[in-house]
Amino acid sequence: MTNAEDITVRSGTNIGFEPTTVSITNNSLSGKLIAPEAFRIENPLVILERVRDGARIGVFTLGTIVSNQTNEVDYTLSLRGEYNLSSTDKVTVVASPINESYKYIYSTTLGDLLRNHNRIELSKKED
Predict the structure, then answer these.
(1) Which partner for 4 in 10, 13, 25, 71 could form a disulfide, CB atoms 3.0-4.6 Å apart?
(2) How many angstroms separate the CA atoms of 46 and 104, rounded?
(3) What span, in angstroms and rounded, lies between the C-alpha atoms of 40 and 22?
(4) Are 33 and 123 in contact (CB under 8 A)?
């Protein structure tokens, strides 16, 4: 479920087998994040967190603000390859403005996020 991974196949001995590396690349997930005022703050940290252990399994790269009226910003999500992920994992998108006592969240399962990633609407939550 990662965005890109290299897989190398090699034998433990050199019996006429040449090691081979295959690169597998999935399309990046992209869409729009919507949050009241979140993207007017410079460089908010936006992550994808797995609920059961709090692991940061993905990072959002934000583009330019699409609309100041609706607070929409383009995003690309990169999943981290070192985690064993399942479509049933409960996840939370978290946007944390620096030096603020609140954050913006969106909770779902990883499978639902992968299917419905075009528009993610975050809700404000006080800490």
Answers:
(1) 25
(2) 9
(3) 41
(4) no
- Residue 2, pLDDT > 60, answer no
3-class DSSP state for residue 47? strand
Task: Tell how strand 72-79 and strand 29-34 pair up.
Answer: antiparallel
pLDDT band at 95 (very low <50, low <70, confident <90, very high): confident
- 119-121, strands of its sheet edge to edge: 119-121, 29-34, 72-79, 56-67, 45-50, 90-96, 102-109, 123-126
Give 40's DSSP letter: G
Question: Tens digit of pLDDT for each residue in 19-34?
Answer: 778 777 666 788 888 8
Are the CB atoms for 60 and 76 separated by under 8 Å?
yes
**Sequence-ordered alpha helix ranges (H) in 1-127:** 110-115
Rounded distance between C-alpha atoms, residue 119 and residue 96, angstroms? 18
Per DSSP, the three-state class of 123 is: strand
